[in-house]
Amino acid sequence: MEIRQLKAFLAIAEAKTFTAGARLVNVTQAAISMQIRQLEDEVGLPLFIRTPRRVILTEAGEHLLERARKILREHDAAIEEIAEIAGAEYGRLRIGSASAMFATQQLPTILQNLKERFPNAQISVSSGTSHSLVEKILHGEIDIAFVSLPVDNTHIATDLLFSDEIVAIGHPNHHLADKKFISAAALAGEPLILGEKGGNTRRLIDEFFAAGNFAPEIVMELSRQETINQMVENGMGVGTAGAKTIGKEVSEGRLTSWLIEGAEIKWDLGLARLRGGYHSPIAKEFVRFCEESFKEREKEFKARK
Q1: Distance (Å) of CA 77 to CA 74, 93, 99
Q2: SS3 of 173, please?
């Protein structure tokens, strides 16, 4: 059982076709078919059922899938550990971010500092929902990710970086602008602009309305908090945001905010990585830069009050 065969098997299992799997591992379809035949000959059982449109894992294939992922993660970890011998300036770090705001405001400086520390490192960044990024970590596609907490998976370790209270936000000319609180009923009756489904914050907001048997009027579901804020500034509806993150807009009179009666919804942002996985020098340094960045951001929030 060879590493290249396991990579081929995993690529086909995830891509669902031999053609797409071959593209993932950058070989011809004939080559990947041969690798799978050799693997099936070795295990003595078929791993895939071939259908006209896709392949389906057999029972043997399902048993091999998680083992293959674990073996390949250990293989990658061993390669990275050995690569450290070549010098601390080398390394690879694949980052995911579920927070577009953070990726825009803080990540560029963090990556600049990281690149100065590791000038020959391979650093990549991808975006997605918290759920999709956790899946990528489990599948070995990325090393670390900024996600909304908590993460309900025993294979994932997390570190809290930032915590904020979710409030309702509206246009300064809103008829309730002079109020400090907004009720769940009043909020559900507004045209709501919320984040897309798949994130913890949206899930908590949906659960809050469901607990009170409210059917909110959701007019927009957007992936970026900055876009939600801008829509609210333009009077397109009422949204939600972290109280700290919209402090500047409120102080400048561009937005008004309300505490939501009966709701204690926290937005916690943290770093997620594979529990028990290899934590490389570049990953450790990245975590340190992130912690320093968020400490500075907390100081800015406190100074703004």
Answers
A1: 5, 12, 27
A2: coil
